[in-house]
Structure formats: structure tokens, C-alpha cells
Amino acid sequence: MTLTRNRMGRSIMKTRNIHLGIIALLSAWMPFTAKAQDKVEALVGVDLVSGYVWRGQDLGGVSLQPAVSVAYKGFSLEAWGSTGFSKTDADGYDAKEFDLTLGYSAGGFNVSITDYWYNTGAGYFHYGAHNTAHLYEARLGYDFGPVAVNWYTNFAGADGVKENGKRAYSSYISVAAPFKLGGLDWTAEVGATPWETDFYEAGGFAVCDVSLEASKEIRITRSFSLPLFAKVTWNPCSERAYFVAGFGF
Length: 249
Description:
Elements: E1 41-49, E2 52-54, E3 57-60, E4 63-72, E5 75-84, E6 87-89, E7 92-93, E8 97-106, E9 109-118, E10 134-143, E11 148-157, E12 171-181, E13 184-193, E14 206-219, E15 225-235, E16 240-248
Antiparallel strand pairs: 1-4, 1-16, 2-3, 4-5, 5-8, 6-7, 8-9, 9-10, 10-11, 11-12, 12-13, 13-14, 14-15, 15-16
Protein name: FrrB
Organism: Bacteroides stercoris
């Protein structure tokens, strides 16, 4: 089992514009890869990133992103958060995010539901259709080995809208391919939204994430290694580009 989410999408949800911007996070971040197991597995970790970029969107500056997860026989539950240190305006700092993901994985197949919450709107326990800062997203994916394909759709909460004001059921599809080169682990990814939604600032089908990430474990002692990563992201839809880096514990 691995923690999912950002890592700039290390996928161990989210960046987006209601603030959002999911994960990693976001996550990614990247596919949920827990394997079925006969015993309970639990993991805890934290990333420090130079910027929070999720699905081609800028969700904040330098951020601390903790995660904890537990898994059993393919089922998993993960909590993921992001707290920024950069001042964004006169009112304060980067928005804080708290996500919960319930998932199931068997072989290459995976499915999950994520509850994203941001502290820039209504309080946590506000769930009304027109008075909530929660966003609910379903994901369906398959990891073929050389390529992983995932489809995400917002089905409730503070989703984006179309130009006519109707709920967009904002969706996103990503295709990611890992490979090794020059002693580093790489992941090339392309993500797009299939239809109109202001959630991804798209007027129709639009490619909003073309990215390349490199990572490497730096051995500190015989029993401790520091994972470092850097990621370049281009967003053809918004005509923006980002370069972020970070490390995790």
C-alpha cells in the first residue's frame, strides 16, 4: 500500500479553483495503488513542496502536506491535508485543505470516492447543496503497468458550472506512464477535461495538464532515505507553466 496524493500530484490529490483545486492530492496526486492484503497496513508521511500544483492549476505556494492511511484486503481509507505558508492577500495565507478518500483496489483495478474540503467557505459541518465547501469526487481507473488510466467526476458539493449556470459534473481523465532514465524514476502524464466547466476553466474539451516528474531516493543512513522529486507542468488550456520540487518523510 502507498499513500496517495499530491507530491505535486505525487498522488502521495489537488489543486483547483473553488479554491480549488481535489489533490493530491494530488495528490496527488496519481493512481491509488493499494494492493489487496491479508493484514492491516498503516502508513503516515508528510511532504514539503515548493508549490501546490494540481491537475495543471496553481493552488498555493510553499506547502506542508501530511497524509495517513490504513488498508485491509484492498480497501483503504486515507486522510490528506495541505497547509500553505505563503501570503496570498491581505486576508491571510494559502487556503487549508483536508481530504478523505475511501477506495478499493484489486489487481490493476481501482475505484475511490474523495471528500475535499477547503477552509475558504462554509464550515466543515455545512453540507447543504448551496452552502458547503465540500466537494465529492468519484474515481475509476486501471493500471495496465506501462500506462495507468484514471477517470474522475465531481458528483456533489461545490462543483463547477457551465456557462448556463447548470452543474457541470466536472470530469477529468489522466493517462500516466512511469519509466526509468539516468538513474531516476520518471512519470509522464497528460490530463484533460472532456466537457465545459469553470472548475477547470474550460469551455469544452481541453488539455489542462502535460507534466513530467522525476524522483529519487537519497540515502542518508543505512536505514533512512530521503525521497526527492521535481515536476514540470504545462497547462495548454490556461497557457501557464509551473516547476515545483519537494521532499517527503
